[in-house]
Amino acid sequence: MTDLLHTLPNFPTKHYTHLVPSLEKSLITTTDLLTLDPLEIAKRAQLPLLDVRRLTNHVLATLQSQLGVVNGMEALRKYEDTPSVENASPLRQSGTAIAEKWSVISILDPTLDSALGGGIPTTYTTEITGE
Hints:
Structural class: mainly alpha
Order of helices and strands: HHHHHHHEHE
Radius of gyration: 19 Å
Strand order of the largest sheet: 1-2
């Protein structure tokens, strides 16, 4: 957690000062906040789940706005006070949610299409090799 201000120097830690000591004691880093499930972080640090979820959403929204992934104010408004799963970040989605948005091109072979989840995904670089 000590690396948070190195990663996001302008992050407003004022709202989360009660969480920082437990997160530091549990050796939770900013990378952990972005990649681990908030439930796992809450268990490791013995903190309330909703507080951890708000912190992770706020860190993610701040990082997205600084990287230009989304509009900064829009991201912060969307994630700051809403811990629900429906408002989860686009970087945190279930496999079925990603699969529903996934557009594919059919190979015209039903067996290969089903093995590939419907065909070859668009917007990705796909290399097919073989002997």
